């Protein structure tokens, strides 16, 4: 098949914005089948935190696939056990027990199942409700589509994307809140308290689920102290707190896990994306207390705990810790954000983020979202050889999420180009 035929084929099967066929990658560089080079400033949507084809990870995968590539989770395998042990060492708070899955969607669904079982079996409640937030993204399965807030993913799915029992409360999206940050913080927290106490009832509320940095919704960083206060509300009302670290985990925000920024003690944590260092792997971690609700056989999928994916994950975590990639994420991320803020660009409503999890909100007069200009920025950056994301609940956020190995020089050059492209819009 020629490259032209291949492009026609993919366009007819699934028309995508960029008909590019990638062939190989190394570090933050990627090459397509025509030999064109790109810089990956999206990390495969938050997956390649440790860079593409890291030699340690490649070696671990090669060695493991020669030994054992799959075994049913009715049994155990060595990398799955070693990874669970390692995760228990690095996870914050009391998260000690690991269960594997293949995707973020499955991890979130497992977390909800566990929270509901805990609510009914251990607490003696009904566990009928889950509180999520109105900019949340938690996946595209049945239950997870319900938890995901944006209509664009739910269209034409009817009840399958809107199961009863999920309540969406306002996100602390303070840039768009009609008041100052403190009022935004108090208002959004009071809503959670009000719903648990007076509308749903603590005994009926199984859990609150939150992304420490709300990713797909627009890289929204809750105000300082918000997450800690949320934890307090959950504790006071005896409701579980689930932190969805699918995108914010493994160094992305400048800490190993995003909820470490506020010293939060979560009851359940979800993981995926960067966990498998490029191979499909996901999981949840729970406290020993919450774990009481699981019975053998409650949770399993065919590929959970795949030995090759677990070997990659283990090597990836070693790379993260040895190379202190979270520290680099913080340093380079602050540099990019500072430079973009200093440029005082008119279409930029807000530059926000944590570490290398950065959003640039593109607006018209009066903070009106400008998704068209955002798309143009993404396309223009692509022409200049950058892979970058655009998204957000209104489609007006440029996403910057490179592998955490990105250098200051690479970041500086990309930021210059981005500033130039945004200036070209005016
Ligand atoms: N939770 C969060 C916070 C996510 O960002 C995503 C994916 N963008 C998911 C869950 C779903 O993960 P997956 O695509 O692996 O199913």
From TrEMBL:
The keyword Transferase applies. GO terms for biological process: lysine biosynthetic process. InterPro entries: Aminotrans_3, Aminotrans_3_PPA_site, Class-III_PLP-dep_AT, PyrdxlP-dep_Trfase, PyrdxlP-dep_Trfase_major, PyrdxlP-dep_Trfase_small. One of its GO terms (molecular function) is identical protein binding. It comes from the Archaea. Keywords: Amino-acid biosynthesis, Aminotransferase, Lysine biosynthesis, Pyridoxal phosphate, Transferase. Its cofactor is pyridoxal 5'-phosphate. The keyword Amino-acid biosynthesis applies. Belongs to the class-III pyridoxal-phosphate-dependent aminotransferase family. This is 4-aminobutyrate aminotransferase. It comes from Korarchaeum cryptofilum (strain OPF8).
């Amino acid at each position: 098949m020629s490259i032209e035929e291949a492009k026609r084929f993919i366009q007819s099967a699934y028309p995508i914005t960029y008909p590019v066929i990638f062939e190989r990658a190394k570090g933050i560089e990627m090459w397509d089948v025509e030999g064109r080079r790109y810089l990956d400033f999206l990390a495969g949507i938050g997956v390649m935190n440790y860079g593409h084809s890291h030699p340690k990870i490649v070696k671990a995968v090669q060695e493991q696939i020669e030994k054992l590539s799959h075994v049913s989770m009715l049994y155990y395998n060595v990398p799955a056990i070693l990874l669970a042990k390692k995760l228990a060492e690095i996870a914050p708070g009391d998260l000690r027990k690991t269960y594997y899955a293949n995707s973020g969607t499955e991890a979130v669904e497992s977390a909800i199942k566990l929270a509901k079982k805990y609510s009914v079996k251990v607490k003696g409640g009904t566990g009928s409700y889950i509180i999520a937030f109105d900019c949340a993204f938690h996946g595209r399965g049945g239950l997870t589509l319900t938890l995901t807030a944006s209509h664009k993913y739910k269209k034409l799915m009817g009840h399958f994307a809107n199961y009863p029992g999920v309540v969406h409360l306002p996100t602390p999206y303070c840039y768009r809140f009609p008041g100052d940050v403190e009022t935004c913080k108090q208002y959004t927290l009071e809503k959670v308290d009000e719903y648990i106490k007076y509308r749903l009832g603590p005994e009926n509320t199984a859990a609150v689920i939150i992304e420490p940095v709300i990713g797909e919704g627009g890289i929204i960083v809750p105000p300082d102290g918000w997450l800690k206060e949320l934890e307090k509300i959950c504790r006071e009302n005896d409701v579980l707190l689930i932190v969805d670290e699918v995108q914010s985990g493994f160094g992305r925000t400048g800490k190993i896990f995003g909820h470490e920024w506020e010293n939060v003690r979560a009851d359940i944590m979800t993981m995926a994306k960067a966990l498998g260092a490029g191979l499909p792997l996901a999981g949840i971690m729970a406290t020993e207390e919450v774990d009481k609700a699981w019975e053998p056989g409650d949770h399993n999928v065919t590929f959970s705990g795949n030995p090759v994916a677990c070997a990659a994950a283990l090597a990836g975590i070693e790379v993260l810790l040895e190379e202190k990639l979270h520290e680099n994420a913080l340093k380079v991320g602050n540099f990019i954000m500072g430079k973009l803020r200093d440029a005082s660009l008119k279409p930029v409503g807000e530059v926000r983020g944590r570490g290398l999890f950065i959003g640039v909100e593109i607006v018209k007069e009066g903070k009106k979202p400008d998704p068209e200009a955002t798309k143009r920025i993404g396309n223009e950056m692509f022409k200049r050889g950058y892979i970058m994301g655009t998204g957000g609940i209104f489609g007006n956020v440029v996403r910057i999420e490179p592998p955490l190995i990105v250098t200051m020089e690479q970041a500086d050059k990309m930021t210059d180009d981005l500033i130039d492209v945004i200036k070209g819009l005016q």
